[in-house]
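Please fill in the sequence for the structure shown.

STRUCTURE ENCODING:
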């Protein structure tokens, strides 16, 4: 963009919690963007390391340090509450979330704003790569294959619900949102486990204009001790899976708002698939949780979002939904036995 006067302000929200060894690279990737009409809101989520001192040093010492502002949370509330604070205080026309252990490419914001302005979008989605911290290794990149502009009521929802895949990354990061879109639709994060999946489930049905880009703009850092390392742990806090179950129960309840929409059948089906995957995680790691999980707790995760009569009226995935609906009504021992066998067959357990 050549005309700097007309460039809209972009708010970049970064929750910060115990990431001192990653934070400088993250912040430099933002401060050195080719697009400079930005405000950076670093949310102090009450960590115990020197992360916020790094933020203050960069405020004082970097050439663009004045763009960096601090929001201080009253307590540690997790990334969901931190992102909600960004939504509330953002001054930008656009809002972009970045995790504090990741970093973005130099032209990321310029590219996303150009697309957003050209197509008057609610959201612009770009591709990302996963990199292994401390190495040059890359995990296969999550890259969209085609450049797409999707416009019209329910058209983006229909695109996502064409089958049981999500079709966009289940992350709030690397998406340029129109700030008014989030506020107008009262879209916020839940302060709980797996909040990104619930956030996506909440907002996608409200989008009326979106762009999807194959350009890789975001570097997702796989780091030691992250939640991605669950398989390497000998014990797993039981609150992790209980938090996931809580989030999924809210996702289940919120399906009701989409009744009557043309994609309701596929939406319910994808929620059921998402919940079944969580059950598989619980069954696979059941002996490693710090406290026992009861059969009743696990089976509560499989509560179906639709009624029996609604499922009978589904145009798509009727048998899929009937199966999981019936299984959810069986005695818990029998239900979990069936789910375990299926999970093993499809290699989710």
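FILLED IN BY: designer on duty
SEQUENCE:
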């Amino acid at each position: 963009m050549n005309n700097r006067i007309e460039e809209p302000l972009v708010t970049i929200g970064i929750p910060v919690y115990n990431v001192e060894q990653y934070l400088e690279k993250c912040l430099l990737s933002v401060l050195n963007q080719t697009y400079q009409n930005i405000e950076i809101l670093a949310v102090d989520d009450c960590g115990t390391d020197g992360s916020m001192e790094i933020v203050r040093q960069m405020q004082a010492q970097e050439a663009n340090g004045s763009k960096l502002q601090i929001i201080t949370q009253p307590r540690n509330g997790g990334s969901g509450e931190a992102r909600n604070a960004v939504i509330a205080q953002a001054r930008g026309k656009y809002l972009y979330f970045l995790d504090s252990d990741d970093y973005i490419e130099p032209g990321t914001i310029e590219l996303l704003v150009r697309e957003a302005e050209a197509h008057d979008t609610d959201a612009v989605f770009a591709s990302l790569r996963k990199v292994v911290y401390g190495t040059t290794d890359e995990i296969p990149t999550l890259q969209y294959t085609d450049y797409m502009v999707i416009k019209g009521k329910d058209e983006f929802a229909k695109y996502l619900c064409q089958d049981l895949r999500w079709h966009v990354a289940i992350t709030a990061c690397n998406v340029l949102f129109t700030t008014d879109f989030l506020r107008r639709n009262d879209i916020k994060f839940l302060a709980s486990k797996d909040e990104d999946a619930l956030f996506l489930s909440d907002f996608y049905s409200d989008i009326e204009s979106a762009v999807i880009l194959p350009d890789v703009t975001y570097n997702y850092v796989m780091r030691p001790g992250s939640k991605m390392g669950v398989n390497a742990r000998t014990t797993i806090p039981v609150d992790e899976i209980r938090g996931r179950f809580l989030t999924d129960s809210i996702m289940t309840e919120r399906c009701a708002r989409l009744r009557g929409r043309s994609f309701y059948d596929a939406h319910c089906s994808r929620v059921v698939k998402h919940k079944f995957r969580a059950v598989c995680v619980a069954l696979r790691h059941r002996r490693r949780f710090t406290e026992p999980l009861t059969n009743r707790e696990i089976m509560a995760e499989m509560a179906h979002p639709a009624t029996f009569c609604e499922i009978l009226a589904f145009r798509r995935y009727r048998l899929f939904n009937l199966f999981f609906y019936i299984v959810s009504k069986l005695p818990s021992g029998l239900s979990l036995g069936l789910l375990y066998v299926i999970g093993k067959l499809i290699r989710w357990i």
